[in-house]
UniProtKB/TrEMBL annotation, chains A, B:
Residues 41-60 bind DNA. It comes from Yinghuangia aomiensis. Keywords: DNA-binding, Transcription, Transcription regulation. Transmembrane segments: none annotated. SUPFAM superfamilies: Homeodomain-like, Tetracyclin repressor-like, C-terminal domain. The lineage of its organism: Bacteria, Bacillati, Actinomycetota, Actinomycetes, Kitasatosporales. Pfam families: TetR_C_38 (PF19352). Coiled coil: none annotated. Residues 18-78 form the HTH tetR-type domain. PANTHER family: HTH-TYPE TRANSCRIPTIONAL REGULATOR BETI, HTH-TYPE TRANSCRIPTIONAL REGULATOR RUTR. This is TetR family transcriptional regulator. The keyword Transcription applies.
Length: 215, 215
DNA sequence: CCTCCGATCTGACTGATCGTCAGATTTCTG
DNA sequence: CAGAAATCTGACGATCAGTCAGATCGGAGG
Protein backbone atom coordinates (compact mmCIF):
# COMPACT_ATOMS: atom_id res chain seq x y z
CA UNK A 1 0.00 0.00 0.00
CA UNK A 2 2.37 2.65 1.20
CA UNK A 3 5.50 1.00 -0.14
CA UNK A 4 6.71 3.46 -2.76
CA UNK A 5 9.50 5.72 -1.59
CA UNK A 6 9.11 9.08 -3.23
CA UNK A 7 11.11 12.25 -3.63
CA UNK A 8 9.68 15.58 -2.59
CA UNK A 9 8.59 16.35 -6.14
CA UNK A 10 6.74 13.08 -6.42
CA UNK A 11 9.09 10.86 -8.37
CA UNK A 12 9.59 7.28 -7.29
CA UNK A 13 13.08 6.75 -5.95
CA UNK A 14 15.28 4.04 -7.40
CA UNK A 15 17.93 1.90 -5.81
CA UNK A 16 20.56 4.60 -5.40
CA UNK A 17 18.06 7.14 -4.25
CA UNK A 18 16.71 4.88 -1.55
CA UNK A 19 20.22 4.22 -0.33
CA UNK A 20 21.12 7.89 0.07
CA UNK A 21 17.78 8.58 1.60
CA UNK A 22 18.37 5.87 4.17
CA UNK A 23 21.86 7.11 4.82
CA UNK A 24 20.47 10.57 5.53
CA UNK A 25 17.95 9.09 7.94
CA UNK A 26 20.65 7.12 9.73
CA UNK A 27 22.84 10.17 10.08
CA UNK A 28 19.93 12.24 11.30
CA UNK A 29 19.15 9.69 13.92
CA UNK A 30 22.77 9.59 15.04
CA UNK A 31 22.76 13.38 15.15
CA UNK A 32 19.74 13.38 17.43
CA UNK A 33 21.56 11.01 19.76
CA UNK A 34 24.23 13.57 20.41
CA UNK A 35 22.89 17.07 19.70
CA UNK A 36 19.97 18.97 21.14
CA UNK A 37 16.96 18.87 18.83
CA UNK A 38 17.07 22.63 18.37
CA UNK A 39 20.65 22.47 17.13
CA UNK A 40 20.26 19.79 14.48
CA UNK A 41 21.03 21.45 11.14
CA UNK A 42 20.35 20.09 7.70
CA UNK A 43 23.83 21.04 6.65
CA UNK A 44 25.39 18.92 9.38
CA UNK A 45 23.30 15.89 8.53
CA UNK A 46 24.23 16.26 4.88
CA UNK A 47 27.91 16.65 5.69
CA UNK A 48 27.84 13.55 7.88
CA UNK A 49 26.19 11.60 5.08
CA UNK A 50 28.81 12.85 2.65
CA UNK A 51 26.31 14.62 0.42
CA UNK A 52 25.11 18.15 -0.20
CA UNK A 53 22.22 19.87 1.57
CA UNK A 54 20.38 20.03 -1.72
CA UNK A 55 20.23 16.27 -1.74
CA UNK A 56 18.55 16.29 1.64
CA UNK A 57 15.82 18.53 0.33
CA UNK A 58 15.28 16.17 -2.55
CA UNK A 59 13.97 13.56 -0.15
CA UNK A 60 12.56 15.53 2.75
CA UNK A 61 10.53 18.68 3.09
CA UNK A 62 12.49 19.68 6.17
CA UNK A 63 14.14 18.21 9.25
CA UNK A 64 10.83 17.55 10.92
CA UNK A 65 9.53 15.49 8.03
CA UNK A 66 12.62 13.37 8.14
CA UNK A 67 12.26 12.78 11.86
CA UNK A 68 8.64 11.90 11.24
CA UNK A 69 9.84 9.23 8.87
CA UNK A 70 12.03 7.70 11.56
CA UNK A 71 9.18 7.99 14.02
CA UNK A 72 6.89 6.05 11.71
CA UNK A 73 9.31 3.16 11.56
CA UNK A 74 9.48 3.25 15.32
CA UNK A 75 5.71 3.18 15.54
CA UNK A 76 5.63 -0.07 13.58
CA UNK A 77 7.98 -1.60 16.11
CA UNK A 78 5.64 -0.29 18.80
CA UNK A 79 3.33 -3.20 18.05
CA UNK A 80 5.42 -5.23 20.46
CA UNK A 81 4.08 -3.10 23.29
CA UNK A 82 0.47 -3.79 22.45
CA UNK A 83 1.28 -7.48 22.37
CA UNK A 84 2.20 -7.26 26.03
CA UNK A 85 -1.36 -6.30 26.95
CA UNK A 86 -3.08 -9.14 25.14
CA UNK A 87 -4.10 -12.60 26.15
CA UNK A 88 -3.04 -12.05 29.73
CA UNK A 89 -4.71 -12.95 32.95
CA UNK A 90 -4.33 -9.82 35.03
CA UNK A 91 -5.18 -11.20 38.43
CA UNK A 92 -3.05 -13.04 40.99
CA UNK A 93 0.61 -13.83 40.59
CA UNK A 94 0.34 -14.18 36.85
CA UNK A 95 -1.16 -10.73 36.69
CA UNK A 96 1.73 -9.18 38.52
CA UNK A 97 4.15 -10.95 36.21
CA UNK A 98 2.23 -9.53 33.24
CA UNK A 99 2.52 -6.07 34.76
CA UNK A 100 6.25 -6.55 35.18
CA UNK A 101 6.58 -7.64 31.57
CA UNK A 102 4.67 -4.58 30.40
CA UNK A 103 6.87 -2.30 32.47
CA UNK A 104 10.04 -3.87 31.10
CA UNK A 105 8.66 -3.59 27.61
CA UNK A 106 8.21 0.14 28.04
CA UNK A 107 11.60 0.66 29.63
CA UNK A 108 13.32 -1.21 26.83
CA UNK A 109 11.37 0.49 24.08
CA UNK A 110 12.13 3.94 25.43
CA UNK A 111 15.78 3.13 25.95
CA UNK A 112 16.00 2.13 22.31
CA UNK A 113 14.22 5.11 20.80
CA UNK A 114 14.85 7.75 23.44
CA UNK A 115 15.92 10.71 21.28
CA UNK A 116 13.17 10.17 18.74
CA UNK A 117 10.54 9.80 21.39
CA UNK A 118 11.65 13.06 22.97
CA UNK A 119 11.02 14.89 19.74
CA UNK A 120 7.74 13.10 19.14
CA UNK A 121 6.64 14.06 22.61
CA UNK A 122 7.54 17.70 22.19
CA UNK A 123 6.11 18.08 18.74
CA UNK A 124 2.83 16.41 19.58
CA UNK A 125 2.53 18.46 22.75
CA UNK A 126 3.10 21.52 20.58
CA UNK A 127 0.14 20.51 18.51
CA UNK A 128 1.77 18.98 15.45
CA UNK A 129 -0.85 16.55 14.23
CA UNK A 130 1.51 14.33 12.28
CA UNK A 131 3.58 13.59 15.36
CA UNK A 132 0.52 13.37 17.49
CA UNK A 133 -0.73 10.62 15.27
CA UNK A 134 2.47 8.65 15.66
CA UNK A 135 2.36 8.97 19.40
CA UNK A 136 -1.23 7.84 19.26
CA UNK A 137 -0.55 4.79 17.22
CA UNK A 138 1.91 3.59 19.82
CA UNK A 139 0.22 4.55 23.04
CA UNK A 140 -3.39 4.19 21.99
CA UNK A 141 -2.85 0.57 21.10
CA UNK A 142 -1.58 -0.12 24.58
CA UNK A 143 -4.28 2.00 26.16
CA UNK A 144 -7.09 0.12 24.50
CA UNK A 145 -5.44 -3.15 25.44
CA UNK A 146 -5.31 -2.12 29.07
CA UNK A 147 -8.81 -0.70 28.94
CA UNK A 148 -10.12 -4.08 27.91
CA UNK A 149 -8.12 -5.74 30.67
CA UNK A 150 -9.63 -3.43 33.27
CA UNK A 151 -13.15 -3.92 31.95
CA UNK A 152 -12.67 -7.65 32.12
CA UNK A 153 -11.52 -7.49 35.72
CA UNK A 154 -14.47 -5.28 36.55
CA UNK A 155 -17.06 -7.61 35.07
CA UNK A 156 -15.54 -10.78 36.54
CA UNK A 157 -15.33 -9.29 40.00
CA UNK A 158 -18.64 -7.64 40.68
CA UNK A 159 -17.00 -4.38 41.73
CA UNK A 160 -18.74 -1.37 40.29
CA UNK A 161 -16.16 0.71 38.52
CA UNK A 162 -15.34 3.77 40.55
CA UNK A 163 -12.96 4.98 37.87
CA UNK A 164 -13.53 5.03 34.11
CA UNK A 165 -11.46 2.17 32.67
CA UNK A 166 -10.15 4.14 29.71
CA UNK A 167 -9.07 7.02 31.92
CA UNK A 168 -7.24 4.64 34.22
CA UNK A 169 -5.61 2.91 31.27
CA UNK A 170 -4.58 6.21 29.70
CA UNK A 171 -3.13 7.39 32.97
CA UNK A 172 -1.13 4.20 33.45
CA UNK A 173 0.23 4.42 29.93
CA UNK A 174 1.20 8.05 30.38
CA UNK A 175 2.96 7.08 33.58
CA UNK A 176 4.88 4.28 31.91
CA UNK A 177 5.89 6.53 29.05
CA UNK A 178 6.99 9.33 31.36
CA UNK A 179 9.06 7.21 33.68
CA UNK A 180 10.60 5.37 30.75
CA UNK A 181 11.58 8.67 29.22
CA UNK A 182 13.32 9.86 32.35
CA UNK A 183 15.32 6.79 33.28
CA UNK A 184 18.55 8.73 33.29
CA UNK A 185 16.92 11.41 35.39
CA UNK A 186 15.90 8.93 38.03
CA UNK A 187 19.38 7.48 38.21
CA UNK A 188 20.83 10.94 38.68
CA UNK A 189 18.50 11.38 41.62
CA UNK A 190 19.12 8.99 44.43
CA UNK A 191 16.42 6.75 42.99
CA UNK A 192 17.54 3.43 41.51
CA UNK A 193 15.77 2.00 38.48
CA UNK A 194 15.74 -1.40 40.16
CA UNK A 195 13.48 0.17 42.77
CA UNK A 196 11.40 1.99 40.19
CA UNK A 197 10.50 -1.16 38.28
CA UNK A 198 8.54 -2.72 41.17
CA UNK A 199 6.94 0.64 41.92
CA UNK A 200 5.66 0.82 38.35
CA UNK A 201 4.57 -2.80 38.30
CA UNK A 202 2.72 -2.34 41.56
CA UNK A 203 0.89 0.73 40.31
CA UNK A 204 -0.05 -0.99 37.07
CA UNK A 205 -1.32 -4.00 38.96
CA UNK A 206 -3.26 -1.89 41.42
CA UNK A 207 -4.63 0.31 38.69
CA UNK A 208 -6.01 -2.67 36.85
CA UNK A 209 -7.21 -4.85 39.69
CA UNK A 210 -7.73 -2.33 42.49
CA UNK A 211 -5.85 -4.66 44.81
CA UNK A 212 -2.41 -4.91 46.29
CA UNK A 213 -0.19 -7.31 44.35
CA UNK A 214 0.49 -10.74 45.91
CA UNK A 215 3.87 -10.96 47.57
CA UNK B 1 21.25 37.65 47.38
CA UNK B 2 20.59 37.21 43.68
CA UNK B 3 18.61 40.41 43.28
CA UNK B 4 20.84 42.40 40.94
CA UNK B 5 19.76 42.19 37.32
CA UNK B 6 22.82 42.27 35.11
CA UNK B 7 23.57 42.63 31.44
CA UNK B 8 25.64 40.03 29.66
CA UNK B 9 28.80 42.10 30.06
CA UNK B 10 28.29 42.37 33.79
CA UNK B 11 26.83 45.84 34.24
CA UNK B 12 23.96 46.33 36.64
CA UNK B 13 20.80 47.22 34.77
CA UNK B 14 18.90 50.36 35.69
CA UNK B 15 15.22 51.09 35.61
CA UNK B 16 14.86 51.34 31.85
CA UNK B 17 17.06 48.33 31.24
CA UNK B 18 15.04 46.13 33.56
CA UNK B 19 11.87 47.16 31.81
CA UNK B 20 13.21 46.25 28.38
CA UNK B 21 14.56 43.01 29.71
CA UNK B 22 11.20 42.11 31.18
CA UNK B 23 9.42 43.05 28.00
CA UNK B 24 11.70 40.71 26.07
CA UNK B 25 10.95 37.90 28.51
CA UNK B 26 7.22 38.51 28.21
CA UNK B 27 7.37 38.47 24.44
CA UNK B 28 9.48 35.34 24.46
CA UNK B 29 6.95 33.62 26.65
CA UNK B 30 4.13 34.69 24.38
CA UNK B 31 6.11 33.46 21.41
CA UNK B 32 6.50 30.04 23.01
CA UNK B 33 2.75 29.91 23.49
CA UNK B 34 2.18 30.06 19.78
CA UNK B 35 5.29 28.82 17.94
CA UNK B 36 7.14 25.54 18.09
CA UNK B 37 10.24 25.79 20.28
CA UNK B 38 12.47 25.06 17.33
CA UNK B 39 11.07 28.00 15.38
CA UNK B 40 11.46 30.70 18.01
CA UNK B 41 13.91 33.25 16.59
CA UNK B 42 15.66 36.02 18.46
CA UNK B 43 14.76 38.40 15.70
CA UNK B 44 11.05 37.71 16.11
CA UNK B 45 11.14 38.20 19.85
CA UNK B 46 12.98 41.48 19.40
CA UNK B 47 10.53 42.66 16.76
CA UNK B 48 7.58 41.82 18.97
CA UNK B 49 9.16 43.76 21.81
CA UNK B 50 9.76 46.69 19.49
CA UNK B 51 13.52 46.59 19.86
CA UNK B 52 16.50 45.37 17.89
CA UNK B 53 18.10 41.92 18.13
CA UNK B 54 21.23 43.56 19.49
CA UNK B 55 19.27 44.62 22.53
CA UNK B 56 18.26 41.05 23.19
CA UNK B 57 21.88 39.98 23.26
CA UNK B 58 22.63 42.72 25.72
CA UNK B 59 20.53 40.91 28.32
CA UNK B 60 20.70 37.26 27.36
CA UNK B 61 23.42 34.95 26.14
CA UNK B 62 20.97 33.21 23.79
CA UNK B 63 17.36 32.08 23.57
CA UNK B 64 17.93 29.18 25.93
CA UNK B 65 19.32 31.41 28.66
CA UNK B 66 16.28 33.61 28.41
CA UNK B 67 13.94 30.66 28.67
CA UNK B 68 15.94 29.46 31.64
CA UNK B 69 15.21 32.79 33.27
CA UNK B 70 11.48 32.31 32.82
CA UNK B 71 11.82 28.76 34.06
CA UNK B 72 13.50 29.94 37.24
CA UNK B 73 10.62 32.23 38.04
CA UNK B 74 8.29 29.34 37.45
CA UNK B 75 10.32 27.16 39.80
CA UNK B 76 9.80 29.65 42.60
CA UNK B 77 6.07 29.37 42.07
CA UNK B 78 6.50 25.61 42.19
CA UNK B 79 6.72 25.85 45.96
CA UNK B 80 2.95 25.72 46.00
CA UNK B 81 3.14 22.10 44.82
CA UNK B 82 5.37 21.04 47.65
CA UNK B 83 2.98 22.67 50.07
CA UNK B 84 0.31 20.23 48.94
CA UNK B 85 2.35 17.29 50.26
CA UNK B 86 2.91 18.67 53.74
CA UNK B 87 0.99 18.40 56.97
CA UNK B 88 -1.47 16.00 55.48
CA UNK B 89 -2.99 12.87 56.88
CA UNK B 90 -2.79 10.45 53.94
CA UNK B 91 -5.12 7.75 55.18
CA UNK B 92 -8.89 7.48 55.01
CA UNK B 93 -11.18 10.02 53.43
CA UNK B 94 -8.92 12.92 54.30
CA UNK B 95 -6.10 11.15 52.54
CA UNK B 96 -8.07 10.80 49.36
CA UNK B 97 -9.01 14.46 49.51
CA UNK B 98 -5.33 15.30 49.90
CA UNK B 99 -4.54 13.19 46.85
CA UNK B 100 -7.22 15.04 44.89
CA UNK B 101 -5.78 18.38 45.95
CA UNK B 102 -2.33 17.30 44.86
CA UNK B 103 -3.65 16.16 41.49
CA UNK B 104 -5.49 19.43 40.93
CA UNK B 105 -2.39 21.34 41.95
CA UNK B 106 -0.39 19.61 39.25
CA UNK B 107 -3.05 20.02 36.60
CA UNK B 108 -3.34 23.74 37.31
CA UNK B 109 0.38 24.32 37.49
CA UNK B 110 0.96 22.60 34.18
CA UNK B 111 -1.88 24.40 32.51
CA UNK B 112 -0.36 27.69 33.57
CA UNK B 113 3.21 27.00 32.49
CA UNK B 114 2.68 24.45 29.75
CA UNK B 115 4.96 25.80 27.01
CA UNK B 116 7.81 26.50 29.40
CA UNK B 117 7.53 23.10 31.01
CA UNK B 118 7.69 21.46 27.61
CA UNK B 119 11.00 23.09 26.90
CA UNK B 120 12.31 22.36 30.39
CA UNK B 121 11.34 18.75 29.92
CA UNK B 122 13.03 18.43 26.57
CA UNK B 123 16.19 20.26 27.54
CA UNK B 124 16.67 18.37 30.75
CA UNK B 125 16.02 15.06 29.00
CA UNK B 126 18.65 16.11 26.49
CA UNK B 127 21.11 16.50 29.30
CA UNK B 128 21.18 20.25 29.83
CA UNK B 129 22.15 20.56 33.47
CA UNK B 130 20.77 24.06 33.99
CA UNK B 131 17.29 22.96 32.95
CA UNK B 132 17.65 19.70 34.75
CA UNK B 133 18.25 21.63 37.94
CA UNK B 134 15.07 23.65 37.47
CA UNK B 135 13.04 20.54 36.86
CA UNK B 136 14.60 19.03 39.96
CA UNK B 137 13.80 21.96 42.16
CA UNK B 138 10.14 21.62 41.32
CA UNK B 139 9.68 17.87 41.22
CA UNK B 140 12.20 16.85 43.84
CA UNK B 141 10.50 18.96 46.45
CA UNK B 142 7.25 17.13 45.82
CA UNK B 143 9.00 13.79 45.64
CA UNK B 144 10.64 14.15 49.03
CA UNK B 145 7.34 15.32 50.48
CA UNK B 146 5.59 12.21 49.17
CA UNK B 147 8.46 9.99 50.22
CA UNK B 148 8.03 11.14 53.79
CA UNK B 149 4.30 10.56 53.56
CA UNK B 150 4.82 7.00 52.38
CA UNK B 151 7.39 6.29 55.05
CA UNK B 152 5.02 7.56 57.66
CA UNK B 153 2.22 5.31 56.46
CA UNK B 154 4.63 2.39 56.43
CA UNK B 155 5.77 2.87 60.01
CA UNK B 156 2.27 3.50 61.39
CA UNK B 157 0.86 0.48 59.72
CA UNK B 158 3.25 -2.40 60.40
CA UNK B 159 3.40 -3.31 56.71
CA UNK B 160 6.92 -4.07 55.61
CA UNK B 161 7.61 -1.92 52.56
CA UNK B 162 7.55 -4.01 49.43
CA UNK B 163 8.46 -1.01 47.32
CA UNK B 164 11.12 1.61 48.06
CA UNK B 165 9.25 4.75 49.18
CA UNK B 166 11.38 7.16 47.18
CA UNK B 167 10.94 5.11 44.01
CA UNK B 168 7.18 5.05 44.51
CA UNK B 169 7.13 8.77 45.20
CA UNK B 170 9.27 9.54 42.15
CA UNK B 171 7.05 7.39 39.98
CA UNK B 172 3.89 9.08 41.17
CA UNK B 173 5.39 12.50 40.58
CA UNK B 174 6.50 11.55 37.08
CA UNK B 175 2.99 10.28 36.42
CA UNK B 176 1.41 13.50 37.61
CA UNK B 177 3.78 15.59 35.55
CA UNK B 178 3.23 13.50 32.43
CA UNK B 179 -0.54 13.46 32.55
CA UNK B 180 -0.62 17.17 33.40
CA UNK B 181 1.53 17.85 30.38
CA UNK B 182 -0.75 15.98 28.04
CA UNK B 183 -4.14 17.26 29.12
CA UNK B 184 -4.98 18.41 25.63
CA UNK B 185 -3.87 15.05 24.30
CA UNK B 186 -6.24 13.20 26.56
CA UNK B 187 -9.13 15.38 25.55
CA UNK B 188 -8.39 14.71 21.90
CA UNK B 189 -8.61 11.03 22.66
CA UNK B 190 -11.96 9.87 23.83
CA UNK B 191 -10.73 10.26 27.40
CA UNK B 192 -12.26 13.07 29.47
CA UNK B 193 -10.16 14.92 32.01
CA UNK B 194 -12.99 14.65 34.49
CA UNK B 195 -12.45 10.89 34.36
CA UNK B 196 -8.68 11.22 34.50
CA UNK B 197 -8.70 13.20 37.73
CA UNK B 198 -10.14 10.38 39.83
CA UNK B 199 -7.87 7.89 38.10
CA UNK B 200 -4.85 9.94 39.14
CA UNK B 201 -6.15 10.52 42.64
CA UNK B 202 -6.82 6.83 43.05
CA UNK B 203 -3.35 5.87 41.90
CA UNK B 204 -1.74 8.45 44.19
CA UNK B 205 -3.78 7.22 47.11
CA UNK B 206 -3.03 3.58 46.38
CA UNK B 207 0.63 4.28 45.79
CA UNK B 208 0.95 5.92 49.18
CA UNK B 209 -1.27 3.72 51.29
CA UNK B 210 -1.32 0.47 49.35
CA UNK B 211 -5.10 0.40 49.77
CA UNK B 212 -8.14 1.17 47.69
CA UNK B 213 -9.52 4.63 48.41
CA UNK B 214 -12.72 4.87 50.51
CA UNK B 215 -15.79 5.52 48.46
C1' DC C 1 16.58 75.59 30.85
C1' DC C 2 21.01 73.84 29.54
C1' DT C 3 25.10 70.76 29.75
C1' DC C 4 27.17 66.64 30.43
C1' DC C 5 27.75 61.73 31.39
C1' DG C 6 26.63 57.24 31.93
C1' DA C 7 23.04 54.02 30.59
C1' DT C 8 20.76 52.19 26.78
C1' DC C 9 19.71 51.24 22.14
C1' DT C 10 20.58 50.32 17.22
C1' DG C 11 22.34 50.25 12.26
C1' DA C 12 25.30 47.80 9.95
C1' DC C 13 28.30 44.14 9.34
C1' DT C 14 30.29 39.16 9.06
C1' DG C 15 29.47 34.58 8.91
C1' DA C 16 26.40 30.59 8.87
C1' DT C 17 22.24 28.14 7.41
C1' DC C 18 18.08 27.76 4.68
C1' DG C 19 15.85 26.31 0.67
C1' DT C 20 15.90 26.44 -4.60
C1' DC C 21 17.26 25.68 -9.32
C1' DA C 22 19.63 24.80 -13.45
C1' DG C 23 22.98 22.18 -15.00
C1' DA C 24 26.61 18.44 -14.25
C1' DT C 25 27.29 13.60 -13.20
C1' DT C 26 26.10 8.90 -12.63
C1' DT C 27 23.41 4.86 -13.61
C1' DC C 28 20.32 2.31 -16.36
C1' DT C 29 18.35 0.58 -20.84
C1' DG C 30 18.54 -1.26 -25.17
C1' DC D 1 28.20 2.55 -26.63
C1' DA D 2 24.52 6.13 -27.24
C1' DG D 3 20.58 8.14 -25.24
C1' DA D 4 17.50 8.72 -21.46
C1' DA D 5 16.39 8.78 -16.82
C1' DA D 6 17.79 9.24 -12.22
C1' DT D 7 20.56 11.49 -9.03
C1' DC D 8 23.58 14.82 -7.25
C1' DT D 9 25.64 19.42 -6.53
C1' DG D 10 27.55 24.24 -6.99
C1' DA D 11 25.92 28.46 -6.59
C1' DC D 12 22.69 31.78 -5.32
C1' DG D 13 19.24 35.04 -2.81
C1' DA D 14 17.07 35.23 1.56
C1' DT D 15 17.07 34.91 6.50
C1' DC D 16 19.02 34.69 11.02
C1' DA D 17 22.89 34.64 14.60
C1' DG D 18 25.82 37.29 17.07
C1' DT D 19 29.07 41.56 17.47
C1' DC D 20 30.59 46.33 17.75
C1' DA D 21 31.15 51.16 17.29
C1' DG D 22 28.60 54.91 17.45
C1' DA D 23 23.91 57.27 18.07
C1' DT D 24 20.31 58.34 21.37
C1' DC D 25 18.17 58.87 25.74
C1' DG D 26 17.30 60.36 30.53
C1' DG D 27 18.58 62.24 34.66
C1' DA D 28 21.92 64.92 37.88
C1' DG D 29 23.94 69.14 38.59
C1' DG D 30 24.54 73.92 37.58
Amino acid sequence: MTGQVRTVDGRVAGRRGQATRQKLLDCLREMLDTSPYRDVKVIDVARMAGTSPATFYQYFQDVESAILEIANDMAKDGARLKALTEDQGWTGKGGYAAAEALVDGFLDFWREYEPILRVVDLASAEGDKRFYKVRQSILNAVTTGLTEAIEEVHTKGKSADEVAPNAMAGTLVAMLAAVSGHQKGFETWKIKMKDVRPALSTLVYMGITGKKPPR
